Known about the structure:
single chain; 6 strands
Amino acid sequence: MLEHLILARHGETEWNIAGRAQGRADSPLTAAGIEQARALGRMLAARGVEHIVSSTLGRALHTAEVVAEIIGCEVSVDERFVERAFGELEGRIVAEALTENPEWAAVVRGHDPLAAAAGSESLHGVAQRALPALDAVRALPYRSVAVITHGHCLTALLGALRDGGDYASYRHGNCAYTPLTIAGGAYVVDRWNLDSQVLVEA
Length: 202
């Protein structure tokens, strides 16, 4: 029975460095991103993670594969953990796009879970598809599992699990993670955006 679930963001990508919106588009990990993934793998191994579930997007899956090699475990995928769709913003330099169209600010800054623009998902919509994926993880035959996903997907999930608050405060750095404890059938979240290079006791 699952006892511990860790949510983590993928490693740094070329588009992260360039300030481009990724969304459902993709970009390869940088050398630094691969090192971040290795640090995440060492931390997850120390915490006894037995299995990795990944978003189907390349940057998350590459991170998951690096992590799994260190742990010595298998990786499964679930497309419900993919990043928020950003529609017409995907691939664009975010700063430039916000100058042209200020309505995107409410979307990319993540304060409002209902904000959406042409072709994009709201954070509320992301949570609606990702929460059932968490329940599917609970059905796996492991005590400790890690999910490798994306920044806005993490923001949406934590906002839903913590029943609101300032969604922007749930943002994660590359390969930062959030440990969830399962108690009484519910997820308990009391800290997030932890540094994968620092082992924090469960």
